[in-house]
Automatic annotation (TrEMBL):
<feature type="transmembrane region" description="Helical">
    <location>
        <begin position="137"/>
        <end position="154"/>
    </location>
</feature>
<dbReference type="Pfam" id="PF00724">
    <property type="entry name" value="Oxidored_FMN"/>
</dbReference>
<feature type="transmembrane region" description="Helical">
    <location>
        <begin position="37"/>
        <end position="59"/>
    </location>
</feature>
<feature type="domain" description="EXPERA">
    <location>
        <begin position="35"/>
        <end position="181"/>
    </location>
</feature>
<feature type="transmembrane region" description="Helical">
    <location>
        <begin position="160"/>
        <end position="178"/>
    </location>
</feature>
<dbReference type="InterPro" id="IPR013785">
    <property type="entry name" value="Aldolase_TIM"/>
</dbReference>
<dbReference type="Pfam" id="PF05241">
    <property type="entry name" value="EBP"/>
</dbReference>
<dbReference type="InterPro" id="IPR033118">
    <property type="entry name" value="EXPERA"/>
</dbReference>
<dbReference type="GO" id="GO:0003959">
    <property type="term" value="F:NADPH dehydrogenase activity"/>
</dbReference>
<feature type="transmembrane region" description="Helical">
    <location>
        <begin position="90"/>
        <end position="116"/>
    </location>
</feature>
<dbReference type="GO" id="GO:0016020">
    <property type="term" value="C:membrane"/>
</dbReference>
<protein>
    <submittedName>
        <fullName>Putative nadph dehydrogenase protein</fullName>
    </submittedName>
</protein>
<dbReference type="GO" id="GO:0050661">
    <property type="term" value="F:NADP binding"/>
</dbReference>
<dbReference type="InterPro" id="IPR044152">
    <property type="entry name" value="YqjM-like"/>
</dbReference>
<feature type="region of interest" description="Disordered">
    <location>
        <begin position="288"/>
        <end position="307"/>
    </location>
</feature>
<keyword id="KW-0812">Transmembrane</keyword>
<feature type="transmembrane region" description="Helical">
    <location>
        <begin position="6"/>
        <end position="25"/>
    </location>
</feature>
Length: 574
Protein backbone atom coordinates (compact mmCIF):
# COMPACT_ATOMS: atom_id res chain seq x y z
CA UNK A 1 0.00 0.00 0.00
CA UNK A 2 1.18 3.54 -0.71
CA UNK A 3 1.75 6.24 1.92
CA UNK A 4 -1.55 8.07 1.34
CA UNK A 5 -3.53 4.85 1.76
CA UNK A 6 -1.72 3.91 4.97
CA UNK A 7 -2.10 7.38 6.49
CA UNK A 8 -5.80 7.42 5.53
CA UNK A 9 -6.35 4.01 7.13
CA UNK A 10 -4.61 5.19 10.31
CA UNK A 11 -6.75 8.37 10.42
CA UNK A 12 -9.91 6.34 9.84
CA UNK A 13 -8.96 4.02 12.69
CA UNK A 14 -8.45 6.97 15.03
CA UNK A 15 -11.84 8.38 14.00
CA UNK A 16 -13.53 5.06 14.70
CA UNK A 17 -11.89 4.86 18.13
CA UNK A 18 -12.94 8.43 18.99
CA UNK A 19 -16.52 7.94 17.79
CA UNK A 20 -17.14 4.69 19.65
CA UNK A 21 -15.49 6.04 22.81
CA UNK A 22 -17.59 9.21 22.66
CA UNK A 23 -20.83 7.24 22.39
CA UNK A 24 -19.87 4.98 25.28
CA UNK A 25 -18.80 7.84 27.55
CA UNK A 26 -22.02 9.76 26.87
CA UNK A 27 -23.98 6.75 28.11
CA UNK A 28 -21.88 6.40 31.25
CA UNK A 29 -21.55 10.11 32.15
CA UNK A 30 -23.79 12.33 30.01
CA UNK A 31 -22.75 15.58 31.75
CA UNK A 32 -19.01 15.02 31.48
CA UNK A 33 -17.01 18.20 30.97
CA UNK A 34 -15.31 18.90 27.66
CA UNK A 35 -11.87 18.71 29.30
CA UNK A 36 -12.59 15.30 30.81
CA UNK A 37 -14.12 14.04 27.56
CA UNK A 38 -11.05 15.04 25.55
CA UNK A 39 -8.80 13.41 28.14
CA UNK A 40 -10.78 10.16 27.94
CA UNK A 41 -10.56 10.16 24.14
CA UNK A 42 -6.82 10.76 24.31
CA UNK A 43 -6.10 7.92 26.74
CA UNK A 44 -8.31 5.45 24.89
CA UNK A 45 -6.31 6.23 21.75
CA UNK A 46 -3.10 5.84 23.78
CA UNK A 47 -4.30 2.48 25.04
CA UNK A 48 -5.04 1.24 21.53
CA UNK A 49 -1.70 2.45 20.15
CA UNK A 50 0.34 1.17 23.10
CA UNK A 51 -1.32 -2.20 23.60
CA UNK A 52 -2.18 -3.26 20.06
CA UNK A 53 0.10 -1.35 17.70
CA UNK A 54 3.26 -1.18 19.81
CA UNK A 55 2.48 -4.59 21.31
CA UNK A 56 2.40 -5.94 17.74
CA UNK A 57 5.91 -4.64 17.20
CA UNK A 58 7.23 -6.10 20.48
CA UNK A 59 5.78 -9.51 19.61
CA UNK A 60 6.92 -9.56 15.96
CA UNK A 61 10.11 -7.51 16.07
CA UNK A 62 12.34 -10.33 14.77
CA UNK A 63 10.07 -10.82 11.74
CA UNK A 64 9.26 -7.16 11.03
CA UNK A 65 10.98 -7.02 7.59
CA UNK A 66 8.81 -9.96 6.48
CA UNK A 67 5.45 -8.77 7.85
CA UNK A 68 2.96 -7.83 5.10
CA UNK A 69 -0.28 -7.33 7.08
CA UNK A 70 -1.70 -3.87 7.86
CA UNK A 71 0.23 -3.29 11.10
CA UNK A 72 3.40 -4.58 9.48
CA UNK A 73 3.09 -2.14 6.60
CA UNK A 74 2.29 0.71 8.99
CA UNK A 75 5.47 -0.05 10.95
CA UNK A 76 7.50 -0.22 7.74
CA UNK A 77 6.12 3.19 6.77
CA UNK A 78 7.01 4.64 10.17
CA UNK A 79 10.50 3.07 10.04
CA UNK A 80 11.32 5.47 7.20
CA UNK A 81 11.73 8.03 9.99
CA UNK A 82 13.55 5.63 12.34
CA UNK A 83 15.33 2.66 10.77
CA UNK A 84 15.94 1.10 14.19
CA UNK A 85 12.46 -0.44 13.89
CA UNK A 86 13.74 -2.65 11.05
CA UNK A 87 17.10 -3.64 12.58
CA UNK A 88 16.05 -5.35 15.84
CA UNK A 89 17.48 -2.49 17.92
CA UNK A 90 17.60 -3.52 21.61
CA UNK A 91 16.68 -0.09 22.99
CA UNK A 92 13.64 0.25 20.74
CA UNK A 93 12.47 -3.27 21.63
CA UNK A 94 12.84 -2.61 25.36
CA UNK A 95 11.03 0.74 25.17
CA UNK A 96 8.13 -0.60 23.07
CA UNK A 97 7.72 -3.67 25.29
CA UNK A 98 7.49 -1.58 28.46
CA UNK A 99 5.07 0.79 26.75
CA UNK A 100 2.83 -2.03 25.52
CA UNK A 101 2.80 -3.98 28.78
CA UNK A 102 2.61 -1.07 31.25
CA UNK A 103 1.05 1.97 29.60
CA UNK A 104 -1.36 0.18 27.26
CA UNK A 105 -3.63 -1.49 29.84
CA UNK A 106 -3.10 1.41 32.27
CA UNK A 107 -4.39 3.90 29.69
CA UNK A 108 -7.65 1.96 29.33
CA UNK A 109 -8.04 1.75 33.12
CA UNK A 110 -7.40 5.48 33.42
CA UNK A 111 -9.94 6.31 30.70
CA UNK A 112 -12.55 4.31 32.59
CA UNK A 113 -11.67 6.10 35.83
CA UNK A 114 -12.01 9.52 34.21
CA UNK A 115 -15.31 8.54 32.61
CA UNK A 116 -16.66 7.54 36.04
CA UNK A 117 -14.81 10.35 37.89
CA UNK A 118 -12.99 7.89 40.14
CA UNK A 119 -10.85 9.52 42.83
CA UNK A 120 -7.74 7.53 41.82
CA UNK A 121 -7.74 8.98 38.32
CA UNK A 122 -5.28 11.75 39.18
CA UNK A 123 -2.38 9.75 40.60
CA UNK A 124 -2.73 7.19 37.80
CA UNK A 125 -2.85 9.95 35.19
CA UNK A 126 0.33 11.47 36.60
CA UNK A 127 2.11 8.09 36.57
CA UNK A 128 1.14 7.25 32.99
CA UNK A 129 1.87 10.73 31.65
CA UNK A 130 5.26 10.90 33.34
CA UNK A 131 6.06 7.40 32.09
CA UNK A 132 5.19 8.39 28.53
CA UNK A 133 7.20 11.58 28.88
CA UNK A 134 10.21 9.66 30.18
CA UNK A 135 10.03 7.24 27.26
CA UNK A 136 9.75 10.09 24.77
CA UNK A 137 12.75 11.90 26.25
CA UNK A 138 14.85 8.73 26.07
CA UNK A 139 13.68 8.10 22.52
CA UNK A 140 14.70 11.55 21.31
CA UNK A 141 17.90 11.61 23.40
CA UNK A 142 19.28 8.33 22.06
CA UNK A 143 18.55 9.35 18.49
CA UNK A 144 20.22 12.75 18.91
CA UNK A 145 23.20 11.17 20.70
CA UNK A 146 23.72 8.66 17.91
CA UNK A 147 23.40 11.38 15.27
CA UNK A 148 25.65 14.06 16.80
CA UNK A 149 28.17 11.84 18.62
CA UNK A 150 28.30 8.62 16.61
CA UNK A 151 27.31 10.02 13.24
CA UNK A 152 24.42 7.58 12.80
CA UNK A 153 21.31 8.90 11.05
CA UNK A 154 18.11 6.88 11.38
CA UNK A 155 15.62 9.13 9.58
CA UNK A 156 15.39 9.81 5.88
CA UNK A 157 16.01 13.49 5.05
CA UNK A 158 12.61 14.32 3.52
CA UNK A 159 10.88 16.96 5.73
CA UNK A 160 7.58 15.07 5.64
CA UNK A 161 9.30 11.94 6.94
CA UNK A 162 11.35 13.58 9.69
CA UNK A 163 8.91 16.26 10.88
CA UNK A 164 5.71 14.38 10.14
CA UNK A 165 6.60 10.96 11.49
CA UNK A 166 9.59 11.23 13.79
CA UNK A 167 8.85 14.61 15.45
CA UNK A 168 5.10 15.20 15.13
CA UNK A 169 3.84 11.69 15.89
CA UNK A 170 5.98 11.43 19.03
CA UNK A 171 5.47 14.97 20.34
CA UNK A 172 1.96 14.28 21.67
CA UNK A 173 3.35 12.31 24.59
CA UNK A 174 5.48 15.24 25.72
CA UNK A 175 2.29 17.03 26.77
CA UNK A 176 1.03 15.81 30.13
CA UNK A 177 -2.75 16.22 30.50
CA UNK A 178 -3.36 17.62 33.97
CA UNK A 179 -6.31 18.17 36.22
CA UNK A 180 -8.34 21.34 36.07
CA UNK A 181 -7.95 23.75 39.00
CA UNK A 182 -10.36 23.41 41.90
CA UNK A 183 -13.64 25.18 41.24
CA UNK A 184 -13.75 24.24 37.55
CA UNK A 185 -17.18 23.08 36.42
CA UNK A 186 -17.20 19.44 35.35
CA UNK A 187 -20.89 19.51 34.44
CA UNK A 188 -22.05 20.39 30.96
CA UNK A 189 -23.70 23.79 30.47
CA UNK A 190 -23.08 25.15 33.98
CA UNK A 191 -24.69 28.43 35.06
CA UNK A 192 -22.78 31.60 34.27
CA UNK A 193 -21.46 31.64 37.84
CA UNK A 194 -19.41 28.54 37.01
CA UNK A 195 -18.56 29.32 33.40
CA UNK A 196 -15.06 30.53 32.49
CA UNK A 197 -14.29 34.20 31.90
CA UNK A 198 -11.25 35.53 30.06
CA UNK A 199 -10.02 39.07 30.70
CA UNK A 200 -7.09 40.01 28.48
CA UNK A 201 -4.69 37.03 28.74
CA UNK A 202 -6.05 35.61 32.00
CA UNK A 203 -8.79 32.97 32.12
CA UNK A 204 -10.76 32.40 35.30
CA UNK A 205 -12.44 29.00 35.64
CA UNK A 206 -15.48 30.47 37.40
CA UNK A 207 -16.95 33.88 38.28
CA UNK A 208 -16.35 33.75 42.06
CA UNK A 209 -13.55 35.93 43.40
CA UNK A 210 -12.32 36.50 46.93
CA UNK A 211 -12.53 40.22 47.64
CA UNK A 212 -9.63 41.89 49.48
CA UNK A 213 -10.03 41.90 53.25
CA UNK A 214 -7.85 43.92 55.62
CA UNK A 215 -6.25 41.62 58.20
CA UNK A 216 -3.86 44.08 59.91
CA UNK A 217 -1.37 41.24 60.32
CA UNK A 218 1.66 42.20 58.22
CA UNK A 219 5.04 42.53 59.91
CA UNK A 220 6.47 45.92 58.88
CA UNK A 221 5.01 45.47 55.40
CA UNK A 222 6.05 41.83 55.08
CA UNK A 223 3.45 39.16 54.45
CA UNK A 224 3.70 36.43 57.07
CA UNK A 225 2.80 32.76 57.45
CA UNK A 226 -0.66 33.98 58.43
CA UNK A 227 -1.21 35.45 54.97
CA UNK A 228 0.02 32.32 53.22
CA UNK A 229 -2.44 30.15 55.15
CA UNK A 230 -5.26 32.72 55.06
CA UNK A 231 -5.07 33.45 51.34
CA UNK A 232 -3.98 29.96 50.36
CA UNK A 233 -7.08 28.46 51.94
CA UNK A 234 -9.30 30.43 49.56
CA UNK A 235 -7.20 29.80 46.46
CA UNK A 236 -6.97 26.10 47.28
CA UNK A 237 -10.73 25.76 47.60
CA UNK A 238 -11.81 26.87 44.18
CA UNK A 239 -12.08 30.66 44.01
CA UNK A 240 -10.79 31.62 40.57
CA UNK A 241 -9.12 34.78 41.90
CA UNK A 242 -7.99 35.64 45.41
CA UNK A 243 -7.12 39.31 45.91
CA UNK A 244 -4.54 40.23 48.53
CA UNK A 245 -5.82 42.90 50.90
CA UNK A 246 -5.26 46.66 50.54
CA UNK A 247 -1.50 47.07 50.21
CA UNK A 248 -0.04 50.51 50.88
CA UNK A 249 2.06 52.12 48.16
CA UNK A 250 3.48 54.78 50.50
CA UNK A 251 5.30 55.82 52.66
CA UNK A 252 7.66 52.84 52.23
CA UNK A 253 6.79 51.71 48.71
CA UNK A 254 10.38 51.61 47.56
CA UNK A 255 11.21 49.02 50.21
CA UNK A 256 7.99 47.04 50.07
CA UNK A 257 9.20 43.42 50.04
CA UNK A 258 8.46 41.19 47.07
CA UNK A 259 9.38 37.89 48.70
CA UNK A 260 6.22 37.43 50.80
CA UNK A 261 3.92 38.28 47.90
CA UNK A 262 5.81 35.93 45.61
CA UNK A 263 5.45 33.16 48.15
CA UNK A 264 1.67 33.54 48.14
CA UNK A 265 1.56 33.86 44.34
CA UNK A 266 3.70 30.75 43.89
CA UNK A 267 1.40 28.73 46.12
CA UNK A 268 -1.71 29.88 44.24
CA UNK A 269 -0.09 29.12 40.88
CA UNK A 270 0.92 25.70 42.17
CA UNK A 271 -2.79 24.98 42.61
CA UNK A 272 -3.62 26.31 39.14
CA UNK A 273 -5.25 29.41 40.63
CA UNK A 274 -4.87 33.17 40.14
CA UNK A 275 -3.78 35.76 42.67
CA UNK A 276 -4.44 39.50 42.67
CA UNK A 277 -3.39 42.46 44.77
CA UNK A 278 -5.23 45.63 45.76
CA UNK A 279 -2.97 48.68 45.75
CA UNK A 280 -4.08 51.46 48.07
CA UNK A 281 -3.29 54.65 49.92
CA UNK A 282 -5.39 55.16 53.04
CA UNK A 283 -5.26 58.96 52.89
CA UNK A 284 -6.92 60.60 55.88
CA UNK A 285 -7.96 57.18 57.26
CA UNK A 286 -4.33 56.10 57.75
CA UNK A 287 -2.45 55.40 60.99
CA UNK A 288 -5.24 53.55 62.78
CA UNK A 289 -4.97 50.59 65.13
CA UNK A 290 -6.31 47.16 64.17
CA UNK A 291 -10.05 46.95 64.93
CA UNK A 292 -9.57 44.59 67.87
CA UNK A 293 -7.21 47.03 69.62
CA UNK A 294 -9.45 50.10 69.65
CA UNK A 295 -12.80 50.88 71.29
CA UNK A 296 -15.47 48.44 70.17
CA UNK A 297 -17.04 49.61 66.92
CA UNK A 298 -14.74 52.63 66.65
CA UNK A 299 -11.32 53.45 65.26
CA UNK A 300 -8.37 54.57 67.31
CA UNK A 301 -5.30 56.47 66.18
CA UNK A 302 -2.09 54.45 66.02
CA UNK A 303 0.50 56.63 67.73
CA UNK A 304 4.18 56.58 66.85
CA UNK A 305 4.89 54.20 69.74
CA UNK A 306 2.41 51.80 68.11
CA UNK A 307 4.09 52.05 64.72
CA UNK A 308 1.75 54.76 63.43
CA UNK A 309 2.44 58.13 61.81
CA UNK A 310 -0.39 60.39 63.08
CA UNK A 311 1.54 63.62 62.39
CA UNK A 312 2.22 62.62 58.79
CA UNK A 313 -1.27 61.54 57.73
CA UNK A 314 -2.15 63.19 54.42
CA UNK A 315 -5.43 63.84 52.64
CA UNK A 316 -6.71 65.71 49.63
CA UNK A 317 -7.88 68.39 52.04
CA UNK A 318 -7.19 68.98 55.73
CA UNK A 319 -10.49 67.42 56.81
CA UNK A 320 -10.54 64.82 59.57
CA UNK A 321 -12.70 61.74 58.86
CA UNK A 322 -14.12 61.64 62.36
CA UNK A 323 -13.54 60.61 65.94
CA UNK A 324 -10.72 58.11 66.31
CA UNK A 325 -8.79 59.36 63.28
CA UNK A 326 -5.74 61.61 62.93
CA UNK A 327 -5.83 65.20 61.69
CA UNK A 328 -4.66 65.03 58.05
CA UNK A 329 -2.34 67.46 56.31
CA UNK A 330 -3.47 68.72 52.91
CA UNK A 331 -1.31 67.19 50.21
CA UNK A 332 0.92 69.38 48.10
CA UNK A 333 1.20 68.85 44.35
CA UNK A 334 4.51 67.10 45.03
CA UNK A 335 2.77 64.79 47.51
CA UNK A 336 0.13 63.88 44.94
CA UNK A 337 2.73 63.10 42.30
CA UNK A 338 4.67 61.04 44.83
CA UNK A 339 1.60 58.90 45.54
CA UNK A 340 0.93 58.41 41.82
CA UNK A 341 4.55 57.34 41.43
CA UNK A 342 4.04 55.03 44.39
CA UNK A 343 1.17 53.25 42.68
CA UNK A 344 3.26 52.86 39.54
CA UNK A 345 6.28 51.51 41.44
CA UNK A 346 4.14 49.13 43.50
CA UNK A 347 2.55 47.78 40.31
CA UNK A 348 6.00 47.02 38.91
CA UNK A 349 6.87 45.08 42.05
CA UNK A 350 3.56 43.23 41.92
CA UNK A 351 4.44 42.05 38.42
CA UNK A 352 7.88 40.97 39.65
CA UNK A 353 6.20 38.99 42.45
CA UNK A 354 4.14 37.01 39.95
CA UNK A 355 0.79 38.67 40.66
CA UNK A 356 -1.84 37.95 37.97
CA UNK A 357 -4.27 40.85 38.51
CA UNK A 358 -3.95 44.36 39.97
CA UNK A 359 -6.80 46.30 41.55
CA UNK A 360 -6.58 50.01 42.32
CA UNK A 361 -8.46 50.90 45.52
CA UNK A 362 -10.62 53.94 44.82
CA UNK A 363 -13.31 53.25 47.43
CA UNK A 364 -14.21 53.33 51.13
CA UNK A 365 -12.89 56.78 51.94
CA UNK A 366 -9.29 56.00 51.04
CA UNK A 367 -7.21 58.64 49.28
CA UNK A 368 -8.39 58.11 45.70
CA UNK A 369 -12.02 58.02 46.80
CA UNK A 370 -11.59 61.22 48.80
CA UNK A 371 -10.12 62.88 45.72
CA UNK A 372 -13.34 62.17 43.79
CA UNK A 373 -15.82 63.42 46.36
CA UNK A 374 -16.91 67.02 46.91
CA UNK A 375 -17.35 66.03 50.56
CA UNK A 376 -13.61 65.62 51.03
CA UNK A 377 -11.97 67.40 48.10
CA UNK A 378 -12.04 71.15 48.73
CA UNK A 379 -8.96 71.93 46.64
CA UNK A 380 -8.81 74.86 44.23
CA UNK A 381 -5.89 73.68 42.07
CA UNK A 382 -5.91 71.24 39.12
CA UNK A 383 -6.96 68.40 41.43
CA UNK A 384 -10.07 70.13 42.79
CA UNK A 385 -13.04 72.22 41.77
CA UNK A 386 -14.62 70.80 38.62
CA UNK A 387 -15.68 67.17 38.18
CA UNK A 388 -12.92 66.70 35.63
CA UNK A 389 -10.34 68.03 38.08
CA UNK A 390 -11.57 65.84 40.91
CA UNK A 391 -11.11 62.66 38.87
CA UNK A 392 -7.66 63.75 37.71
CA UNK A 393 -5.65 62.01 40.43
CA UNK A 394 -7.51 58.74 39.84
CA UNK A 395 -7.11 58.83 36.06
CA UNK A 396 -3.43 59.71 36.34
CA UNK A 397 -2.95 56.83 38.76
CA UNK A 398 -4.69 54.42 36.39
CA UNK A 399 -2.49 55.57 33.50
CA UNK A 400 0.64 55.22 35.62
CA UNK A 401 -0.21 51.65 36.65
CA UNK A 402 -1.33 50.57 33.20
CA UNK A 403 1.91 51.89 31.69
CA UNK A 404 4.13 49.50 33.67
CA UNK A 405 2.13 46.26 33.73
CA UNK A 406 1.97 43.72 30.90
CA UNK A 407 -0.60 44.29 28.17
CA UNK A 408 -2.16 40.94 29.02
CA UNK A 409 -2.61 41.68 32.75
CA UNK A 410 -6.13 42.65 33.86
CA UNK A 411 -6.50 45.94 35.71
CA UNK A 412 -9.42 46.43 38.11
CA UNK A 413 -10.76 49.49 39.88
CA UNK A 414 -12.75 49.33 43.11
CA UNK A 415 -15.02 52.29 43.65
CA UNK A 416 -17.64 53.46 46.09
CA UNK A 417 -20.44 54.06 43.62
CA UNK A 418 -22.44 56.08 46.15
CA UNK A 419 -21.59 57.63 49.51
CA UNK A 420 -25.10 57.15 50.94
CA UNK A 421 -25.29 60.79 52.00
CA UNK A 422 -28.44 62.89 52.06
CA UNK A 423 -28.91 66.64 51.64
CA UNK A 424 -25.26 67.22 50.75
CA UNK A 425 -23.35 67.25 47.49
CA UNK A 426 -21.47 63.97 47.27
CA UNK A 427 -20.19 61.33 44.89
CA UNK A 428 -23.18 59.30 43.69
CA UNK A 429 -24.28 56.76 41.10
CA UNK A 430 -24.55 59.22 38.15
CA UNK A 431 -20.93 60.26 38.83
CA UNK A 432 -19.84 56.63 38.84
CA UNK A 433 -21.64 55.95 35.56
CA UNK A 434 -19.99 59.01 34.02
CA UNK A 435 -16.57 57.81 35.21
CA UNK A 436 -17.20 54.21 34.13
CA UNK A 437 -17.66 55.32 30.53
CA UNK A 438 -14.09 56.65 30.54
CA UNK A 439 -12.43 53.58 32.05
CA UNK A 440 -12.05 51.27 29.01
CA UNK A 441 -9.99 53.91 27.19
CA UNK A 442 -7.74 54.15 30.26
CA UNK A 443 -7.08 50.41 30.26
CA UNK A 444 -9.36 49.36 33.11
CA UNK A 445 -10.96 45.97 32.52
CA UNK A 446 -13.37 45.60 35.45
CA UNK A 447 -15.15 47.99 37.79
CA UNK A 448 -15.52 46.49 41.28
CA UNK A 449 -18.67 48.19 42.57
CA UNK A 450 -18.81 48.87 46.30
CA UNK A 451 -20.12 51.88 48.22
CA UNK A 452 -19.74 54.21 51.21
CA UNK A 453 -16.83 54.73 53.59
CA UNK A 454 -16.13 58.43 53.06
CA UNK A 455 -18.21 60.00 55.83
CA UNK A 456 -19.35 59.04 59.34
CA UNK A 457 -22.80 60.50 58.53
CA UNK A 458 -23.49 57.92 55.80
CA UNK A 459 -26.85 56.15 56.04
CA UNK A 460 -26.63 52.67 54.58
CA UNK A 461 -29.63 50.38 54.42
CA UNK A 462 -27.52 47.26 54.81
CA UNK A 463 -28.98 43.86 53.99
CA UNK A 464 -27.87 40.84 52.02
CA UNK A 465 -26.93 41.70 48.45
CA UNK A 466 -27.59 45.39 49.19
CA UNK A 467 -25.14 46.74 46.59
CA UNK A 468 -26.10 44.46 43.71
CA UNK A 469 -28.72 46.75 42.19
CA UNK A 470 -26.10 49.52 42.06
CA UNK A 471 -23.80 47.32 40.01
CA UNK A 472 -26.71 46.42 37.75
CA UNK A 473 -27.60 50.06 37.29
CA UNK A 474 -24.07 50.90 36.18
CA UNK A 475 -23.91 47.92 33.83
CA UNK A 476 -27.26 48.83 32.32
CA UNK A 477 -26.14 52.39 31.66
CA UNK A 478 -22.98 51.17 29.97
CA UNK A 479 -24.83 48.65 27.81
CA UNK A 480 -27.34 51.30 26.84
CA UNK A 481 -24.51 53.26 25.23
CA UNK A 482 -22.93 50.17 23.68
CA UNK A 483 -20.05 49.95 26.16
CA UNK A 484 -19.55 46.24 26.77
CA UNK A 485 -15.79 45.98 27.23
CA UNK A 486 -15.85 47.05 30.89
CA UNK A 487 -16.71 44.10 33.12
CA UNK A 488 -18.67 44.74 36.31
CA UNK A 489 -18.04 43.07 39.65
CA UNK A 490 -20.65 43.05 42.40
CA UNK A 491 -19.90 42.76 46.10
CA UNK A 492 -21.65 43.14 49.44
CA UNK A 493 -23.07 40.48 51.78
CA UNK A 494 -23.40 37.84 49.08
CA UNK A 495 -23.91 34.67 51.10
CA UNK A 496 -26.23 32.24 49.31
CA UNK A 497 -25.91 30.16 46.16
CA UNK A 498 -29.11 31.15 44.39
CA UNK A 499 -28.47 34.84 45.01
CA UNK A 500 -24.93 34.62 43.64
CA UNK A 501 -26.23 32.80 40.57
CA UNK A 502 -29.04 35.28 39.99
CA UNK A 503 -26.74 38.30 40.04
CA UNK A 504 -25.16 37.02 36.84
CA UNK A 505 -28.42 35.78 35.26
CA UNK A 506 -31.25 38.09 36.32
CA UNK A 507 -34.29 39.65 34.66
CA UNK A 508 -34.37 43.12 33.05
CA UNK A 509 -34.88 45.92 35.54
CA UNK A 510 -35.57 49.62 35.20
CA UNK A 511 -32.84 51.68 36.84
CA UNK A 512 -33.47 55.35 37.64
CA UNK A 513 -30.10 56.61 36.41
CA UNK A 514 -29.86 54.33 33.38
CA UNK A 515 -33.14 55.41 31.85
CA UNK A 516 -35.69 52.97 30.51
CA UNK A 517 -35.41 49.20 30.87
CA UNK A 518 -32.22 47.97 29.24
CA UNK A 519 -31.86 44.43 27.94
CA UNK A 520 -28.53 43.66 29.58
CA UNK A 521 -27.20 40.38 28.20
CA UNK A 522 -23.94 38.58 28.79
CA UNK A 523 -22.02 36.43 26.33
CA UNK A 524 -24.32 33.47 27.02
CA UNK A 525 -27.45 35.45 26.13
CA UNK A 526 -28.64 35.68 29.73
CA UNK A 527 -29.66 38.78 31.65
CA UNK A 528 -27.06 39.91 34.18
CA UNK A 529 -26.40 42.62 36.74
CA UNK A 530 -22.69 41.80 36.83
CA UNK A 531 -19.98 39.62 35.33
CA UNK A 532 -18.29 38.61 38.58
CA UNK A 533 -19.31 38.16 42.21
CA UNK A 534 -16.75 39.17 44.82
CA UNK A 535 -17.21 37.63 48.26
CA UNK A 536 -15.32 38.53 51.42
CA UNK A 537 -16.60 37.72 54.91
CA UNK A 538 -18.58 34.70 53.79
CA UNK A 539 -15.27 33.13 52.79
CA UNK A 540 -13.95 33.75 56.29
CA UNK A 541 -16.97 31.90 57.63
CA UNK A 542 -16.85 29.21 54.94
CA UNK A 543 -13.54 28.78 53.10
CA UNK A 544 -15.20 26.01 51.04
CA UNK A 545 -18.03 28.35 49.94
CA UNK A 546 -17.34 27.68 46.23
CA UNK A 547 -18.00 23.96 46.74
CA UNK A 548 -21.16 24.56 48.76
CA UNK A 549 -22.54 26.94 46.14
CA UNK A 550 -21.80 24.43 43.40
CA UNK A 551 -23.51 21.65 45.35
CA UNK A 552 -26.58 23.77 46.04
CA UNK A 553 -26.85 24.64 42.34
CA UNK A 554 -26.37 21.04 41.22
CA UNK A 555 -23.06 21.79 39.50
CA UNK A 556 -20.30 19.20 39.60
CA UNK A 557 -16.97 20.95 40.14
CA UNK A 558 -13.37 19.92 40.51
CA UNK A 559 -12.21 19.50 44.11
CA UNK A 560 -8.55 19.52 45.15
CA UNK A 561 -7.34 15.96 44.63
CA UNK A 562 -6.34 15.70 48.29
CA UNK A 563 -9.94 16.52 49.28
CA UNK A 564 -11.79 14.25 46.85
CA UNK A 565 -12.93 11.95 49.67
CA UNK A 566 -14.54 14.94 51.40
CA UNK A 567 -17.01 15.79 48.63
CA UNK A 568 -20.60 16.44 49.67
CA UNK A 569 -22.71 13.29 49.59
CA UNK A 570 -25.74 13.34 47.33
CA UNK A 571 -28.86 14.15 49.28
CA UNK A 572 -26.97 15.94 52.05
CA UNK A 573 -28.45 19.15 53.40
CA UNK A 574 -25.66 21.67 52.92
Amino acid sequence: MDTLTLVSIFAAGCTAIFSSTYLLVMRVRPRISTADLLTVLWFVLCGCIHLFFEGYYAYNFRRMPLMQDLFGQLWKEYSLSDSRYQTQDAFVLCMETITAVCWGPSSFILAAMIATDHSLRYPLQAIISLGQLYGDVLYYATCLFDFYILGLEYSRPEPAIFWGYFVFMNSFWIVIPCKSPAGTALSKDPPTLFSPLTIRDVTFQNRIWVAPMCMYSANDGHLTDFHLVHLGAFAYRGASLTIIEATAVRPKAESLPIEGFKRVADFAHGQGQKIGIQLAHAGRKASTLPPWMGPRGKSAVAEEKDGGWPKNVKGMSALKWGEGYAEPNEMSLEDIQDVIDGFRDAAKRAVAAGIDVIEIHGAHGYLLHSSLSPVTNKRTDQYGGSWENKIRMLTETIKAVRSVIPEGMPLLLRISATEWLEDVESWDIPDTIKLAKLLPALGVDLLDVSSAGNSPTQKIGMHTNYQISIAGEIRAALFKEGIKDLKIGCVGMITEAEAAKSHLEDEPTTYPNAGETVDVKDEQGKIAKADIVLVARQFMREPEWVFRVAYRLGVEVQWPVQYLRAGFLKGSVI
